[in-house]
Amino acid sequence: MGLVVFLSFTKWNGVSPITLIGLGDWRRLVADPQILSSLWISVQYTVGTWVVQTALAMTIGVWAAGRQRFRAVLSSIFFLPLLFSSAAIAVVWVVLLDPNFGIVGWLGSKVGFSAFDPLGSPHGALLMVVLVTAWQFVPFHTLLYQGATRGIPKVLYDMAALDGCNGLKKFLHVTLPHLRNTIVTSSVIIIVGSLTAFETVLILTNGGPGTATYTLPFDMYTIGFTNTQLGYGSAIAVVLVVVATAISLILVRVTGYARMRSTLEGM
Amino acid sequence: MELVSVSRRQFLTGAAGAAVLLGGSRGFGGALRGGLARLGTGEAAAQGGTADVWVVTEAENPAIQTAINTFNKHSSVKLQLVIVPATTSMNTKVRIAIKTSKRPNMFFNWAGGSIAPYVHDDLLVNLTPYLDAKPSVKNSFLPSVLGAAKINNQFYGIPVKGVQPVVFFYNKAMFKENKLSFPKTWDELLHAVKVFNSKGITPILLPGATNWTTLMYLEYISARLGPYSVFEDLLTNNPKAWENPVILKTLQYCVDLVNADAFGSTFKTLNYSDGVADALFAKGKGAMMLMGTWDYGTQVTSYKSFALNDIGWAPFPTMPDGKGNPAALAGNPSNWLSVVKTTPEVDKACVDFLMTQMNSAAFVHNLIAVGDVPAVEGIENELKKAPNSEFALGTYNLVKDAPSFELSWDQAVSQSYGPQLDTAIQQVFFKQISPQQFVDKMMTDAKEA
């Protein structure tokens, strides 16, 4: 990290000697409209990822903690994406989403979309990145929610049933409060992971169409390694670390997670 | 503001020292010092008498391998072909490795900005003395192609592929069915676009997801609008290069082509590197494709019948009020192999390989067999025996007779913003930025480079 901070005050192409340029990279960063655009895209990606993954993981995790028929078999199949690397998953989805030869394009044409090309539009491409990421990581967060739900004492549900609560009310008044710490844990992992996610964007969209999915990490990579502006890329890296760390600290502080209060206190 | 210049050795030694301090344990520090020392000294492992030749995934690789096999029979230094996958950037891979023990001994490149930093840092072998000492070798290559690898008027590369001007490939059967001849003017091109659109045929296949494919339109339209100095200013990093009104005019023509629906509805996600565009062209899903003649080699390998019978090709049409020479070319004059300085023995072996194999009859023959047109003088008779001799001879004469042959702009300009140029022109085609925004961006990027 110290080296990256040092490089953020230099101009270096990775080959020639390093040149110290003071605040040159930082002045450029503040004035660069692409950085602001990348930051906004990262925010959209992070929010979208959190919404999709939290909703799905919580729903499936709570369901998987129950005793439904075939739960174990279905859970095992569902957790398969956890076994694959991000790169492998992205390569597969690029092929599936190809509008000319991919199965998704073929299916889309069968339901009335003659040129179904989700990666071809800015919003569609970003949505696809969110969904492919969700496909990969929802199983992991599902495990977190499943484990947490299993830890909720059954007696609480029995008491709720005695009070006349139906399924939804049991979820809202028993399950959800006891998942508070898990929600915070999962959210921190999702948010920090989203702010630093890179390989899915690289392989699925390569930042495109155009710069529509240029997240901040991808922008940093492009500037630092493709354009060989390692000094400027390092300045972006420092911003990324500071922003991700700040968000994590704020989340932990605001949610009271730092106090490590058990949801079973008083039981 | 340049306050201090820190050499790579000083930086890495400083980094090593800091890491040792922080690491603590002798074992960790020792290992790190050893690793960084290897990085810092610049001494490449000669790898026990072998030399690595890095090339990209191309149809010509078997020909290069055969040349290497021939050379290795009589050389104590054995060359090894290392193929860099198409999904990896050769430029990035070389840049990362060139000052380490894992560096290539020779590498495939695009000349211009792709090797300029290495020349600047004295990392490449200057081939000029060797070429001057062997005029028969020097004069065996087409001068416009050999000269394209000059930096500061010195030669740093030898052509390893055929000449690769960008031309308009077209489906002869489709044009015949629609009673069209290939457009010679911009207006005729727009008319052809209209006709094909009315028949539900994608007029021009543009693998727009691969951003440099959009650059070719910028290069040719500006070359046809002219004059040649528009490109020269870029090549010499003239600070006012991007302000030239021809560039803005060129961009507007690009937008006109997009607005005319010339590229179909899925061009933004159509990739070139995965072969999908070639497959679509071969399957008759598009009438035209602006692409380098390297693509013909790929078509011959993958879709031989289509390539030999149905592909036509033509120069880029002229532009209204254009001052450029209609015979001017753009594209890759070739690709080159450059030699990275390592040990005298290995350097000599690499130079000998280039001097003896790249213009040999066998190598020329093998390149022609995969559809290439080698950048070698006096091969007309050999080209007459090529799989598609008409195409091969036509391309050869195109290059021989061209008044100018512009190197691809993203290779010609500084590599500090060459990739950004590709992204920005792609954004114009995707209508994410306006032509003026493109010009403003390029002016800023060129200044920061």
Report on this structure.
The complex is a heterodimer of chains A (267) and B (449). Chain A is mainly α and 267 residues long. Chain A contains 13 helices and two strands. Chain A has helices at residues 2-7, 24-31, 33-64, 71-78, 86-96, 103-110, 122-150, 154-162, 167-178, 180-196, 199-204, 216-226, 230-255, and strands at residues 10-11, 18-20. In chain A, strands 1-2 form a two-stranded antiparallel sheet. In chain A, helix 3 (33-64) packs antiparallel against helix 10. By secondary structure, chain B is of the alpha/beta class. Chain B has 23 helices and 14 strands. In chain B, helix 3 packs antiparallel against helix 18 (361-369) and helix 22 packs antiparallel against helix 23. The longest helix of chain B is centred in the N-terminal third of the chain and has 16 residues, at 8-23. The two termini of chain B are 14 Å apart. The model of chain B is unreliable at 19-47 (pLDDT under 50). The interface between A and B is large, with 40 and 47 residues. Strand 2 of chain A pairs antiparallel with strand 1 (5-6) of chain B, so a sheet runs across the interface.
